[in-house]
Design a protein that fits this description.
about 190 residues; globular; Beta-clip-like; about 20% strand; 4-stranded mixed sheet; about 20% helix; alpha+beta
Length: about 190
């Protein structure tokens, strides 16, 4: 489930994307997997062509356990960026790791997923990886970079308005987060 903070629009070079309707502050919880998201099992990527994998990844992403999640909403329009403004946390939700300006595209770092594919990176960021690979465990330097961003954002969770506050209870995530919960995220 994604917060109703975005609209789907065409991008310049990546098809459709999600764009902020208004300013979104760092620390805002953006989305989480809810009971409406479809879990796809029994998919063997080793038996798929590259085209079939690409088609699947237009609608779903692969988790560590090998299952695929097909989001129930516009989450599937989050495009990749090596300098993403949204990243995942250990608590099962994704968070804005920097302020997102009105009209700015929302992005996620796909290297967090467990897909069996190499993609051309189109982000054009200063830290662009050129090719998106799904190496696990995640390289230490990249993991450190993500942790620095998510840890700083988690410290703001209780200080910014949370549009998904009531829905997070479905996942037994209750706001405000206590200091112990926030500190357990920080590695």
């Amino acid at each position: 489930m994604i917060a109703k903070l975005f609209e789907v629009r065409e991008t310049q070079n990546r098809g459709k994307g999600l764009f902020a309707k208004d300013f979104i502050p760092k620390g805002t919880i953006i989305c989480f997997e809810c009971e409406k998201c479809k879990v796809l099992t029994g998919i063997d990527p080793a038996k798929m062509t590259v085209k079939e994998k690409e088609a699947l990844l237009d609608y779903a992403y692969r988790k560590k356990d090998g299952s695929y999640i097909a989001p129930c909403d516009e989450t599937r329009y989050l495009n990749h960026s090596c300098n993403a403004n949204i990243l995942g946390t250990e608590s099962g939700f994704d968070i804005a790791v920097r302020d997102i300006k009105k009209g700015e595209e929302a992005t996620y770092d796909y290297r967090d997923f467990y897909d069996d594919l190499i993609m051309q990176c189109c982000c054009r960021e200063e830290n662009c990886c050129k090719e998106v690979t799904f190496t696990h465990p995640v390289p230490a330097e990249l993991l450190k970079y993500w942790n620095e961003k998510t840890n700083a954002a988690l410290k703001l969770v209780n200080k910014v308005e949370q549009p998904l506050k009531e829905y997070l209870k479905q996942k037994s995530i209750f706001l405000p987060l206590d200091d112990k919960t926030i500190n357990n995220q920080i590695t």
